[in-house]
Structures are given as structure tokens and as C-alpha cells.
Write a structure and sequence with these properties.
285 residues, mainly alpha, 0% strand
Length: 285
């Protein structure tokens, strides 16, 4: 695998462009499927049947009208049969996932952990858009993420060691530690918030989501995610209140900020975090 990575990294510029284009298109295709997940999972509908159809008129969507990104533009954002406007969310998710897949590829290259990171990104995108719309994070994302994080950590130990080779049981132990730290820290914050504000300050979906992040990325990613998501959520929340879009008592989804922070960790946040701790310890760490 390292030989493959070196070969691809040494490929001429045109071939690098081809690989990048393939990854982008692959991400857009995955984004198209994630749109199905975002719509159907909260409604307890099957992800397989019926196949893609207009939610207004019920017409099945032909393959030529279901090309990621392109069909949305060619159809001018409307259903071919009934003319109902298609939500911009469909185009946004396809484009977002395509870009994120490409960024993960650029950051990590053709390593065994890269497809796993794509899976993580996919779950976080689904959780984000469902949370925005329904103020819930599906158990398929959170509990499923915990189980998948443990299993894939054993199969791909480099998730918890980078390019350093470690036994699968050490990677599994680090995954379990990350899961436990994620759940414990956010659960403690949720309990403390309820005691102070006399109401639920955080949903259990957020707690389980951070546990899944820890299972895939480790305890250090959990700390990074809590710090960055708290800052981002506070800035956005205060801005919405000042803009009179929300009230102080309004419920604001926290899951999207956890997802954003975890993705930032994948895209270079880990290096920044390690550099910060190295500086903080005076070069000892």
C-alpha cells in the first residue's frame, strides 16, 4: 500500500488531475445516496425501495435525471413531471461531499484509512442535515458509528497510528478509549448543563455522536472536537440571537458543530493540535 501511495504521488500532473476528478465524481455519487438517507431515515423509510422518486407527484426519477450535480442544473431545480421546485439541499449535499472527499484524498492520499475517513465524513454529513431539519441525530449514525469505529479500527490500525505500524488490539483499545472519553465528557457536560439551566442543555444524540467520533479518531480528536465545536456553536448562536433570528431560549442543534470540528480534525486539525501540545509542553511531548 505504501508503494501504491508513492507511485500515485509521483504520477504526472495529468494523472493526478484524473485521480482528483474521479474522487470528486465518486464523492458526488455518494452525496446523491446520502440525500436519500437524509430524507428517508428520519421518516423510517427503506433506503432501497421504492427507488428515487419525486416526493410531490411520486414519479420515479429516470437515470438521466439523477446524475449528481448536473441533473439539478439541467432541470433548472424543478421536477420534470410536476414542476415542483427541488430543494437546494440536494445539490448542496452532493457538492459538499464531493469537495470533502477530494480534500480527504489530498490530505491522506491512497492510504487504507482514506476510505474509512470517507465513511466518517458521510455519516457526519447525514447527521448534520438531519439534525438541522429534525433536531435529532439518527442512531444509525451514532450507535452505528460506534460499532463501525471499533470494528474498522481493528481492521485498519493506522486510524489510530498514522503511518506507524501497530497491532490491531492496540488500535482497538485506542478506539474503545476514544469512544469512552467522547461519551463520558459530553454526558458530564449535558448533566452539568441540566443542573445549572434546569432543562436539557444537550441531546443524547450529540453524546452518542461524539462517542462515534472517538471510536474512529481517538481521544485526542474528542478533545479537539469539543473545544472547536463549543467555540463555533457559541459564535453562531450569539450571532443568531443578535440578528434576532433566535431567542436565548431557542434550541440550536449542536451536532453540526461536532461534525464540522471532526472533519477539521481529518483535514489537518490533528497536526495543529499536536503542534499546540508540543509547544504547550515546552517540546517535551
Amino acid at each position: 500500500m505504501h508503494a501504491l501511495a508513492e507511485t500515485l504521488n509521483a504520477a504526472p500532473a495529468p494523472w493526478n488531475a484524473v485521480f482528483a476528478a474521479f474522487v470528486f465524481f465518486f464523492g458526488a455519487c455518494i452525496g446523491s445516496f446520502l440525500n436519500v438517507c437524509i430524507y428517508r431515515i428520519p421518516r423510517d423509510e427503506s433506503l432501497v425501495r421504492p427507488r428515487s422518486h419525486c416526493p410531490t407527484c411520486g414519479h420515479m426519477i429516470a437515470g438521466y435525471d439523477n446524475v449528481p450535480l448536473l441533473s439539478y442544473l439541467l432541470l433548472r431545480r424543478r421536477c420534470r413531471h410536476c414542476g415542483t421546485r427541488i430543494s437546494f439541499r440536494y445539490f448542496l449535499v452532493e457538492l459538499l461531499v464531493a469537495v470533502l472527499f477530494l480534500l480527504v484524498w489530498r490530505q491522506h492520499g491512497p492510504q487504507p484509512r482514506t476510505p474509512v475517513y470517507w465513511l466518517v465524513v458521510s455519516g457526519l454529513v447525514v447527521g448534520t442535515f438531519v439534525d438541522f431539519e429534525h433536531l435529532i441525530i439518527p442512531d444509525r449514525v451514532t450507535l452505528g458509528g460506534m460499532v463501525a469505529g471499533l470494528l474498522l479500527s481493528a481492521l485498519v490500525p493506522s486510524l489510530h497510528a498514522g503511518d506507524v505500524a501497530i497491532p490491531f488490539y492496540i488500535a482497538l483499545a485506542r478506539s474503545a478509549l476514544g469512544l469512552a472519553v467522547g461519551v463520558a465528557l459530553l454526558l458530564a457536560i449535558a448533566i452539568l448543563g441540566k443542573l445549572i439551566f434546569r432543562k436539557d442543555a444537550m441531546g443524547m444524540g450529540d453524546v452518542k455522536l461524539l462517542g462515534a467520533v472517538g471510536a474512529f479518531l481517538g481521544w485526542q480528536a474528542v478533545l479537539f472536537t469539543i473545544v472547536v465545536s463549543s467555540f463555533a456553536g457559541s459564535v453562531v448562536g450569539i450571532s443568531l440571537v443578535l440578528a434576532r433570528r433566535k431567542k436565548m431560549q431557542s434550541r440550536i442543534p449542536y451536532g453540526p458543530y461536532l461534525a464540522l470540528s471532526a472533519i477539521l480534525w481529518l483535514l489537518g486539525g490533528a497536526e495543529l493540535w499536536h503542534a499546540y501540545w508540543h509547544w504547550l509542553s515546552g517540546g517535551i511531548l
